[in-house]
Amino acid sequence: MKHPSALGVSLLILVAVTAAVGPSSANGNQSFGVSHQALSAILSRASAKDVMDSYQRQTNTISLDRANLDEPHLLSVSIPTGSSLQGYIEIDGHTRVPLGANSEFIDVSPYLSEAITRVTIVGSYSPPSASVAIAFNGPNTVVQQQTGGTGRVNYQLNLLVQ
Asked: Which of 3, 72, 76, 159 is most buried, most CB within 10 Å of its CB?
């Protein structure tokens, strides 16, 4: 699918039109029918799997103690032996670490500040039946997440330093 944002906008418009134009209004059925036909043409190019793959993101938000910022805060991304992973880890939209081996470890401590740090993991893996394990280990904090079955990973970890 080339334009997931167009698909998302189309879905939102369809929902808005459905809510705004009820069948009880005088021209409601006709207005809805025209809108529905236009949106159906766009949506017919995408399957339900495309929609889910494009917009499915797992997110966790955790709080970290500012007193521990000097200690390691390790993020790991791993897949089973025999699987492959392509993608990247992005920190606050700037720093990118490529994914490509069976596992990747990164200490996010140097990127933490007294605010929210957003760590995003995006990629694809094969075979699609495999899974991707994501773990964050810091002082007094352990978060583990596993995703599988789609061939894609789209995960965001929000680190809130207080």
From this structure: 159
Distance CA 78, CA 134 (A): 7
What values do phi and psi take at 41, rounded to 5? -60, -40
**For 104-162, what is each residue's pLDDT tens digit?**
899 999 999 888 999 999 999 999 999 999 999 999 999 999 988 889 999 999 999 99
Domain count, the chain: 2
Shared domain for 25 and 90, answered yes or no, is no
Cα 87 off chain centre by: 13
Q: How far apart are CA 1 and CA 7, in angstroms?
A: 9
pLDDT digits (tens, 9 = 90+) for 1-48: 444 444 454 444 544 444 444 444 444 455 556 555 655 655 555 555
The residues near 91 (Cβ < 8 Å, ≥ 6 apart) are 97, 108, 111, 117, 118, 119, 120
pLDDT score recorded for residue 13: 52
Domain that holds residue 10: 4-53
Query: Do 43 and 84 share a domain, yes or no?
Result: no
Write down the pTM of the prediction.
0.65
Please indicate, yes or no, whether residues 68 and 148 belong to a single structural domain of this protein: yes
